[in-house]
Amino acid sequence: MDSFKSNIYSFKSTIKNFKDFLNKIKDYGFLQRLFAWNLLKKEANELMDSLEELSDLSNNLSNNDDKLTDLKNINEKINSDLKIQVDGNLSLREKIATIEATREDRKKKYESKMKDFDDMISREHDRKKNEENEKEKAKQDLENQRRISWQTHEDEVSSFILDKCLLYGIEYVGPEEFPNKLKPDNSILISERYVIFDAKSPKDSEDTASFIKSINTKVKQQEKYTKLSNVKKDIYLVVPTNLYRDLKKTEYQQGNYNVWIITIEQIPVMLAHFKKTMDYSDFDGLSPEDRDALIKEIGTYAFNFRRRLMIDGYFGSQFQDIIKNTKNNLSEELFNEVEQAITNLGDSLPTKRSGKPLSIDDVDQEIKELNTRNQLMGIPTPPIEKENNK
What we know:
six-stranded mixed beta sheet
């Protein structure tokens, strides 16, 4: 920059000297020009040298101008490149901002979904916990309800057996009347031998699971009765009905005696069986063991027959309800078509009891008669509902 200023100054100085030299020649007269010729010539030579320098300076200025143009072009290119770079950086910044915004949005969505997932897990955990609590509460409520019935179970069994013995004409023997220091809860006298019905229910400190685990021990404890000669080898443990379905085993064969787990509902069938065996008079001459074996065999058949009749009576009652509901729920026209289809099916049978259609009233009457016969034999049957006369 200093060199450029120096060149400008020299250029201006040379121009000024040239103007001064021309003015001096113009102002000199002939004689002044004649006597000062050498001086003018010297100044002219110096001026020529300055002009040559000025020529060089002009060349330098021209070169500098070219360089300046080149520098301008370079500067413009640099500025263009810089603008491209700036624009590129701006585009990158916009892309980075977009990526950052997208990442932030995804982060928020991820956090929201994770929160929803955590909430779902928490709700599921709470649901399962509440479900477990409800099951446990229901189990505890059932256990408490069972305990209420357990407290009076032994008295109810004794009272029930006594009432049924009076009904069937069988001798009931309570603990005080039992002819031994052993005092079973209940026993009946069949052909001069005692059949023991020992009522068992959980103690106050026991729950259902504990009581079931103790069954084996209670079964083994019955051996003391079977050592008596006048006691039958089949012992019956009467447990609460609401515990019976939880038992996995209800028959225990202990070698020289058997223990059966029953409920109070099974007692009438058994007493009816024992009453029937008392009516047989053809057992004279048989040993007590043979007599018990024969009675047991006959009793097994009788029990299964009665059980089948009881089940048939139950399902008959259920089917009867279904038929009645069908009649009540169908329109009269549709019901008549169903009845006609039943009649057609009845006509296709090889033999018919009567020429009348198989009506609902006929079925109802037959079921009632069957239930009545079963009740007279001591077989539990579904209750017969009395229809209100309209």
